[in-house]
Amino acid sequence: MMPRAGEHNEVWLQGNLRPVIAISLVAGIAAALTVVAVAIVAPPAWALLAVAAAGGLLLALLVMLAWAAAQPRLVRRGNSVAVRLAPWRVERVPLEVVECVFRGTEPIVASEEAAPRFRVGTLILRIAERATEWRERETFRPWGSWDDGHIVIDGRWCAPLSAESARQIATRLAELKRELSAGCPP
Asked: What is the 3-state secondary structure (H, E, C) of 13-56?
């Protein structure tokens, strides 16, 4: 998405390629094993061609996922915050409806019966209750959620979250909101 003329862009939270690299390694090993198995079991050229085509499709999908994962999760654009919680969509939330930003955690659940052994860091943006049109959006769940006025960004799919990074984003949001309330465009 290109910025509008005269619009200031500030990246508040970068994306993260680490999960895509891990997925790519697993997919690459699986593809290599498949090629070896097909070469042993079905040596005709058409079988290898089919495997090569499937490998090309897999590579294209991984490149698209890597591009999307590398895109920033939060960018201040003018009087709004661009939130990317899906590879295919960016939502521009007006600054005046974002009440606060804070750090949180969510359990990593392996199965329904087991108690979670690990937690993942999150960044949470709280939306004002009066902003009913911004209460929820569809997301790519591994990247986060947007329900009941809370935007929750999963720390595994963004730049490392720390208390300091959350504090910097919250401080910048407060500065911009003060400028808006004083009638100064950010």
From this structure: ECECCHHHHHHHHHHHHHHHHHHHHHHHHCCCHHHHHHHHHHHH
